[in-house]
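[audit] Reproducing an earlier prediction to check determinism. Same input, same settings, fresh worker. If the tokens differ from the archived copy the diff job will pick it up downstream; this log only records the rerun itself.
[audit] input (299 residues):
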Amino acid sequence: MKRYTVRHETHYQYGAVVDHGLHQLRLTPVSAGRQRLVQHAIAITPEPDSLTQFSDHFGNGVHSASIESPHQAFSVVLQATVEVAATDATPPDGPAWETIRDQMQGDGFPTPPEIAELTYPSPLAQHSDAATAYAAQSFAPGALVVPALRDLLARMKADFAYTPGVTDVTTAVSQVMESRAGVCQDFAHVMIAGLRGLGLPARYVSGYLRTYPAEKDAGGGLQGADASHAWVSAWCGPELGWIDCDPTNNLIVGDEHIAVAHGRDFSDVTPLRGVIFGGGSHGLSVAVSVTEEPAEPPR
């Protein structure tokens, strides 16, 4: 079990006065499965006139803030402590992938429906013939689902270049398939579109990666740290459940990933979204750090 301190800062500076701001925050790490949220606090400046919490359709924790006084800056700082247990880096191979696909079909109400709904296209993971054909190369007839996922991860790592700045949150899967370049959210959308194209449930996961010193990152650390990260959760049947896969780093997710929210694609898990009245042009800065706390000495 590893314990991490997470700090996520978001700062907006507006070019004109904002009269009213409405914001939704999906920033709090989940406390379920291999992960336990020990404590967390969210500081919002200016202080909201109202702040409510609720769970969305996917079970993600959401804060809704309303700032009704004039302001020209807006900041949100999350501070959290999270414990993450190691996962099996070599899970069982699971059933043939067609078995899972067939369980998602039928009379329109397969069991469980909250899993089957993740076989359908979504706004940022639209159906793509190219992505489906690419995934199909790893999912030969009769292939077992986990080895097929591993093969797909390895191929994506080899074929796609991690290149910040060439895409944005609206970049289509088809465009990423053509350029073979992008960042973690692009690779997650490509993998999700490919798996869904084969009839397999897949969901988008937002979260954080452990931050390493710059010298280790330069020597081959995980890509996507020091910012929000994204990966894919693939349904591998009722015995194995969801298995988290990181196509950016070609690995089955272990104890250096911290999950925050999941949904159909990025549009369901945006860390911060909202509506402002006024404001003009604005500047944005984001900083993320995830540091492992030293283990307590044995007593």
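[audit] rerun output stored. Observation attached for the diff report: The chain is about 20% helix and 40% strand.
[audit] end
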